[in-house]
Amino acid sequence: MAASAETRSDAAAQKRWRSKRPFRSIVRWIAIGLAGLWLLFVLLLTAMRWINPPTTAVHVERGLQAWMHHKPYHERYQFVPLSQISPNLQHAVIAAEDARFYQHHGFDWHAIELAAEHDAEGGRIRGGSTIDQQLIKNLFFGTDRSFLRKGAEATLVPVAEVVLGKRRILELYLNEVEWGPGVYGAEAACRYWYRTSARHIDPDRAARLAAILPLPLKRRPDRMNHYSELILERMRQMGW
Known about the structure:
Elements: H1 2-47, H2 57-68, E1 76-77, H3 87-97, H4 109-120, H5 131-141, H6 147-163, H7 165-176, E2 178-180, E3 183-184, H8 186-194, H9 203-211, H10 225-237
Helix pairs in contact: 1-6, 3-9, 3-10, 5-6, 5-7, 9-10
């Protein structure tokens, strides 16, 4: 009887083990897939040290949204070297989006702490993302706000810092960021909003363009009087 009970127990244990095998196999393949995707992103970032990306996740997302809602969509996108983007616009964007860009190594922990405190106090959600983080999001993840995206982004930001460097990160960001409906990058933004090139944009217009970056589909530069003045003042404080 004891042997029979032991046999039944072993059989039940083997049955449970077999039932877990498909689940373990699925988890393993998911892990392998995610690791492969992460490596692909690393390879793409490395290639972007020399190659300008023809599109981004945000570009694709906006095109799909327009197609799904049967709306017209015209993409304006022209990649230009950082040397052809006025320092006025470079400085305005840094002052508005990531004042410690040249001091941090991908994450501005002070800004993140301030954002967390602001949220805890029940205020409006205040972003603590750096230009590095926003670039990774724009390139690979679109406008998704999930924790999974945040986690993947956090692992790729240090890679970008190492393989790209600050100058290339800024160049990529200024050329890829969304600046209006179908408007991507500094050159397209300057021509769309002001009929001029990114090389010749003046400080006031540069500040107005930087002011719409948090909500580029809802804001217009000509309505950013107060915020653009704050950006200009911040630029002066930073020695620009």
